[in-house]
Amino acid sequence: AYGGPAGSVEVKETTKSWIFLTTTEVYKLKKPIRNHFQDLSTIAAREENTRREIKLNRRLAPDVYLGAVSLTLDVGGRLALEGHGVVVDWLVHIRRLPQERMLEQIIVSGAVSQTSIAELLATLAGQLTDFYRAVPRADITPEEYVALFAREQAENRKILTDKSFKFVRDRAVDLLAGFDKTLVANRGILEDRVRQNRVVEGHGDLRPEHVCLVDPPVVIDCLEFSRRLRFLDPFDELVFLGMECSAIGAPWINDFLINKIAAGLDDRPADKLLLVYEAYRAFLRARQSLAHLLVPNPREPEKWMPKARRYLDIAEQALVTLAN
């Protein structure tokens, strides 16, 4: 179907896509899912989503996202990429990046010195600074910004207190109540970020597995399906990236990137706000971990409960630090 030498093809499945990896390229095929965020049940909807993903990701990975590719079916029943038959689906065409240069792999492997990582992260900090300066400001009110946190907190509560998760439920109830109070107590500083024109349309899913430390670094796989969920404070997603790096053994990255980008943007939020963001992201990740166990035949079911507990540990520590 690839129309040329593809070498061996590795297939991976995610919650929302099938990923086909050839020797040098990647093809991403969207699943025909429908939920409260998006409806990809038609070919036209998947094409539109594919093109939007490419456009958004070219902001931080301009030469990685190669374009949208049609999948066609001819009268003989043969599939082809960019063929002459009927278009039956669309794929995101991506240049394959070296897996060993992904930030997650670099941290876990320990094969690259902290000095070398820091040099590339300094370049990344400059890129992100330019990115946050250039992207549109979020067209929401201060009240709407706070409502985003309240809405996600409600979704967190649905999953984290589900009767299926009795081993974390009681703890989650107490912690979520603590975060309710935190949101009320810090409503003003959250609203001020909008008033100060600091909330932007960002990447939305800034994690170490989405950062590739080639030269220059690139950031892939942004949150493409909801513009509203891309409305965020840059330091919200920087805290998220730092939290994820800390969880796999590189806690120094958090302060390193925040300090660099704060200087570049001439904007240093209070530590209290950073802790609010950390607790918020930890609850969100705990919820996402447990949500995998609520679907039929979950992939790797043994890993999600321990991950959820670790994220609840992070949320609790952030809340304790805030309280003190």
Please tell me the overall pLDDT: 95
Q: Roughly what percent helix?
A: 40-55%
Individual helix count: 10
- What portion of residues belong to β-strands? 5-15%
Largest beta sheet: what is the strand line-up? 1-2-3-6-4-5
Spatial extent as radius of gyration: 21 Å
**How far apart are the first and last residues' alpha carbons, in Å?**
60 Å
Low-confidence stretches: none
Shape, per Cα inertia axes = globular
Category by helix and strand content: alpha+beta
Main β-sheet description: 6 strands, antiparallel
How many strands? 10
Topology readout:
Layout: E1 10-13, E2 17-21, E3 25-30, H1 43-57, E4 65-73, E5 79-81, E6 86-95, H2 103-109, H3 114-134, H4 142-160, H5 166-185, H6 187-195, E7 200-201, E8 211-212, E9 218-219, E10 231-232, H7 234-247, H8 252-265, H9 271-291, H10 304-323
Antiparallel strand pairs: 1-2, 2-3, 3-6, 4-5, 4-6, 7-10, 8-9
Helix pairs in contact: 3-8, 4-5, 4-6, 4-9, 5-9, 5-10, 7-8, 7-9, 9-10
